[in-house]
Specification:
alpha+beta, Jelly Rolls, 5-stranded antiparallel beta sheet, 4-stranded antiparallel beta sheet, 7 helices, 16% helix, binds heme C
């Protein structure tokens, strides 16, 4: 009897130990590796900026790039400092959202704590963005901007650069992308497109102009943009824009785009370079993507607030030492499908929220930025077009913090900060304020809500 008992416990021990072995072996097959678990997260959410010529201070591509910064990466992802994505994902969501799920954050933690295993790195595919420096793929035409010499004087600079081109014939354009040469210095760029009259030569005229000069509009004439009768040619406003972390937007075939005349020029208007401590040269580029067919669904732009069609109330004059709330709103007279939105404020911006109230009182949530980050101002594109029915009111609520507690306040002690209207438009200087909400939309067609914006 006793013998039998012993045998039974031994059996139990064997069973137990084998299950322990089983447990461990099953765990080891789930080892978290760079190749299997971490590279896909990094390549989607980090590499677009952390690559050569990206805006990030170092590359995050291969195993060693990431492993040697494992501790810092575990920290910045846990605290949600990186990737920078100021919009509240619980309010509304967008394509190319750079935001890690809790599961992805945890995976990075576990990978770091379990010794940063590499896995079979030969299986890792090179991230798509590395091939052309664009998420839109291979451009059909590349225009090089005149190189700009940047001195080591630690000052901001603003330039207007003419980018002429000649094509054999009128050509349909589907997408444009501005590719900065020195993304760590290029803060923003608003590009317009000018359609020349056949008699004008786009290659004549100044190519670079420093803005902020006394007589800006007279000097602008040096660009030789005018038609032979002195009038200015047709202009496509904001044909291509750039802000840090943004890439060109390619809507599905047939949506957006415009016709590029066989002669013309883009104007990189107010290309803003931040301060540099070293002498350097920026050679930025414009990537152009052609289309075989003319655009069937043209897109339009609505701008609320500064320089726009809807006033800011109360006006944007922010007294020192206060937190100030402002609203701008607009009634929509036709059904529209909203594709992309761009909230814009400067340094003392604190919060930004935009939504539409339908005639029946329902709310359509557009965007909520609970903690404004001046550094990260994206063009947010919806996954599916958002229908706003006619009679709705689009409303923007913004808050500015002009107190000493705001670490981004450009003045100590705080002083009056306002929207300054000069040159027929608002001052773009970062120390002045702006409140803008730009909406790219198309007139609504039945079924627009079902269009997948990411489809090729
Ligand atoms: C939109 C561009 C962008 C994306 C996306 C991005 N970064 Fe960054 N990252 C930057 C820039 C620019 C800096 C330099 C600091 C700054 O400007 O805020 C930076 C700084 C860092 C730093 C250094 C922080 C420090 O304190 O010095 C780390 C680490 C980092 N990023 C990791 C990541 C990781 C990991 C991801 C993806 C999960 C990521 N970043 C995504 C642009 C980006």
């Amino acid at each position: 009897m006793k013998k039998f008992l012993i045998a039974k416990t031994t059996l139990l021990a064997v069973l137990l130990s084998s299950s322990v072995v089983l447990f461990f072996s099953c765990n080891s097959s789930q080892t978290i590796t760079f190749q299997k678990d971490i590279a896909p997260i990094i390549h989607k959410n980090c590499t677009p900026c952390h690559r050569p010529n990206g805006g990030g201070p170092f590359s995050l591509i291969g195993y060693w790039d990431v492993a040697k910064r494992g501790k810092m990466i575990a920290h910045v992802t846990k605290t949600k400092y990186m990737p920078p994505w100021p919009a509240d994902p619980n309010y509304s969501s967008f394509t190319d959202e750079k935001i890690l799920t809790q599961q992805e954050i945890d995976l990075i933690q576990q990978w770091y704590k379990s010794g940063k295993k590499a896995g079979d790195t030969s299986l890792i595919k090179s991230p798509e963005i590395l091939q052309y420096g664009s998420l839109l793929g291979k451009p059909d035409m590349v225009l090089n901007l005149e190189p700009v010499a940047i001195k080591n004087d630690n000052l901001d600079r603003f330039y207007v650069i003419k980018i002429p081109y000649q094509l054999g014939k009128d050509t349909f354009v589907r997408a444009l992308e501005f590719v900065p040469g020195k993304p760590s210095l290029v803060h923003h760029m608003n590009g317009h497109y000018y359609k020349f009259s056949p008699s004008t030569n786009p290659f004549i005229g100044n190519k670079i102009l420093t803005t902020g000069t006394e007589n800006f509009s007279t000097e602008f004439k040096g660009f030789n943009l005018q038609n032979s009768d002195g009038s200015l040619p047709l202009r496509v406003h904001s044909a291509v824009n750039y802000l840090p972390g943004t890439y060109g937007i390619k809507y599905p075939i047939g949506i957006g785009g415009f016709v590029l005349a066989k002669n013309g020029a883009f104007m990189a208007n107010d290309i803003h370079y931040g301060p540099s401590k070293v002498n350097t040269i920026d050679s930025s580029k414009l990537y152009i993507y052609f289309d075989k067919k003319p655009p069937q669904r043209p897109t339009y732009e609505l701008m609320l607030g500064t320089n726009g069609v809807a006033p800011i109330l109360p006006p944007l004059q922010i007294a020192p030492n206060i937190i100030s709330k402002h609203v701008t709103q607009l009634e929509i007279y036709n059904d529209i499908s909203v594709l992309t939105i761009n909230p814009h404020m400067h340094l003392i911006g604190k919060k930004f929220k935009a939504y539409a109230i339908k005639p029946n009182g329902d709310t359509i949530k557009l965007i909520n930025i609970p903690k404004w980050l001046f550094r990260w101002q994206y063009f947010y594109t919806f996954k599916n077009p958002v229908k706003i029915p006619k009679g709705s009111i689009i409303k923007v609520e913004a808050e500015f913090d002009n107190t000493i507690d705001n670490p981004n306040n450009p003045f100590t002690p705080p002083k009056l900060i306002a929207e300054r209207l000069e040159f027929g438009g608002a001052s773009m200087r970062t120390i002045d304020e702006m409140l803008q909400f730009i909406i790219t939309y198309m007139p609504y067609h039945k079924g627009d809500e079902l269009i997948d914006i990411n489809q090729p």
